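We close this part of the discussion by returning to an individual protein. The amino acid sequence and the backbone structure tokens for this protein are reproduced below:
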Amino acid sequence: MGKRMDTKIVTTGFQRLAKHIALDLLATGWYFTDKLPSDASFPQKRGPKGCVFTKIKKLFKGGNLCFSLENAGCYGASCYLGFTKPDKNAGAFLSETEGFKKNRAFAQAFYKDIKARTPQKKYIVIENLNNIDKNRSIEIINLWTRPIHLSGLITLANYDSPDNDNVIFPLASGCQSIWTIPYKEKQKEEPKSVVGTIDPAIRKYLPDDILSFSVSTERFVEMTDNISGSFLEKASWLTLINKRTKK
């Protein structure tokens, strides 16, 4: 798991996967850097309109979104990206404003469990996979998928293991599900993939039938290396996806 996952390695894996699972939206990748891309785009400073998902369509079209301590986006993202710690009164927003937890105690427990990793460098960047510089070391990859293709990704994630719980689907904020939790999983000996973007607050920015599938790049490459000989090459899978056309 210690091998550097530069863009070329990850892209090769993605091209291998794309032959069997045709995703509707372009994949995105996350990386740390002290040198920003020339076309760097930042969210609004520490405000409610700074949510990454307000610019998600730009990412799908080939853009990027950069975060730092000074420009971390919305209040929650600052915590989820590891730049700050949750405020002691954060639970009031989750329970009373958004109504996602029954009371403040449950909401505070949610924030206490975040435990986001401190960024390795000054900036964290999420960018369309096709545009990431070839020398970048990508940490996490996000695949944006409909249920039919998600079924294939989940099955592939469990293909090379005797266990059947190698994918998790936790309650999480949008950016928590595509970065915080997958990056925490990356630190483990056997990292799990993460299905996400079920946060009601961000669903309005995504197509109704699209969810995210996020995974460490090391595990992603392992998964794509396992395609040969798997169900993805069987007639049953090919027949299934050939019968379903894109909306």
